[in-house]
Amino acid sequence: MSQPLDTQPAVNPRRWLALLFIGLAQLMIVLDITIVNIALPSAQQDLGISDGDRQWVITAYTLAFGSLLLLGGRIADYTGRRRSFLIGLIGFAAASALGGAAPGFGVLLGARALQGAFAALLAPSALSLLAVSFTEPRERAKAFGIFGAIAAGGGAIGLVLGGVLTEYLDWRWCLYVNVPIAVVAAFSWYVLPVDEPAEGGRARFDLPGALLAVSGLVAVVYGCSEAESKGWDSLTVTGLLTLGVVLLASFVLTERSVPRPLLPLRVVADRTRGSAYLAVGLSVVGMFAMFLFLTYYMQRVKGYSALVTGVAFLPMTAAVLAAAGGLGARLIPKVPPRVLVAPGLLLAAAGVALLIPLEPGSSYAAGVLPAELLVGFGMGLVMAPSMNYATHGVQPQDAGIASATVNTAQQIGGSIGTAMLNTIAASTTKDYLAPAIRERRVTPQLGKEGLVEGFSHAFVWSSLILAASAVVVGLLMNTPRPSRQPGAEQTAPLPVHLG
């Protein structure tokens, strides 16, 4: 007689309070991707970092984060999501404090890598906890709308906060700020659902798969970053990219044969989930490009301060919130996901395309603001359903790895896309200024024109990538309209293990 009860997922009565703490943790992770961008010039001057090494303050975080996420997701599945969430939270705060107190470049670089490693444990735990906390379709859509808005808009918030902290306190507070956020989020221990570790807690990790995935991703991202200085056709870059592809192909073959794979191929084989990962990975190419190039445009070309630059990104944040937390949350239970994701990618492509004719004399209101609004609204439409369907219908034991995969797509897509587009921009600027450099007639105005010319070429490629992504996702994502019948979707969301 108890059978009907066994088929119903348990409901966490404090799930909305849990969402608050999970959202704080996610905000902390996303903030650290962009907040240091604003602080970097001050940190570089304070610690004596060279121009060639300064990029590693950003790359050390994203590279460690993206390459270790799959392993972090598996650890969350084996050891328990709540436990992993708290370990990742405390470790991230400690690494942030270390980075804030760093006496030199080496310590700062190590702290940033540690932040990325603990974020790789924290992020999949947060998303999988969200997935198991909200099982009713309408509540789930609303929760993922909020979470998607944080994931998409947190980067812009980081730019604003970084500007405030750098201008009125010190660049080190861009790292210290994570400590009080983590302290508040640590109270989540009392409201998060208690879950049971997989297989009674006997952790058996796919170490060969982990090594292949990490080394393959590191090789690809490092190869792309080296292309800026050495060129895409250099032996170093082609060797690294080839090695990365070979290692990742070996990883896929390994996952097909091992008994407990790091990434079960069934997680990505589903067309809708796979398309969600693809949409997230490719969409951040447009967003990361906007953050990077518009930050330099506003500070170096227009002469904005760090704070004004951060505030200038607020309209994009508002557009993301409106799309993900408002429109997206209402439509996710009613329409197929591709009805939101594909148009969202097209809107983002159109927004980036508006930046192509940007010139040094362009005004913010006419040249930048319309693009921000379109890209922000488009990204909101992409992120909310993609985050939802990235974990939709997976088995409970795969919740952590499914969450890790979408975060991996976001970080690696952003790292590779940024390195690639930055190489395009730098090469174009170099070619534009080459004749003037030979004739020694470079002026500040010509330098600005060269920078903007490079940004424009990068925006062309970014827009094309987003438009192509919309076509691919629209064709691949085949999930039909959600059922409107009560209880029809109760088997799809993940159950909560109480104990």
How far is the N terminus from the C terminus?
22 Å
Q: Could you name the CATH topology of the largest domain?
A: Growth Hormone, Chain: A
Number of helical stretches of at least 4 residues: 18
Strands, total number:
0
| CATH-derived architecture of the largest domain | Up-down Bundle
- In the CATH scheme, the class of the largest domain would be Mainly Alpha
Weakly predicted, low-confidence segments: 1-9, 485-499
The structural class is mainly alpha
Global Rg: 22 Å
Mean pLDDT: 79
Strand content: under 5%
**What's the shape?**
globular
How is the main sheet built? none
Order of helices and strands: HHHHHHHHHHHHHHHHHH
Q: Give the helix proportion (percent range).
A: over 70%
Subcellular location: Cell membrane
Organism: Streptomyces sparsogenes DSM 40356
Protein name: Drug resistance transporter, EmrB/QacA subfamily protein
Transmembrane segments: 16-36, 56-73, 85-107, 113-132, 144-169, 175-193, 205-223, 235-254, 275-298, 304-327, 339-358, 458-477
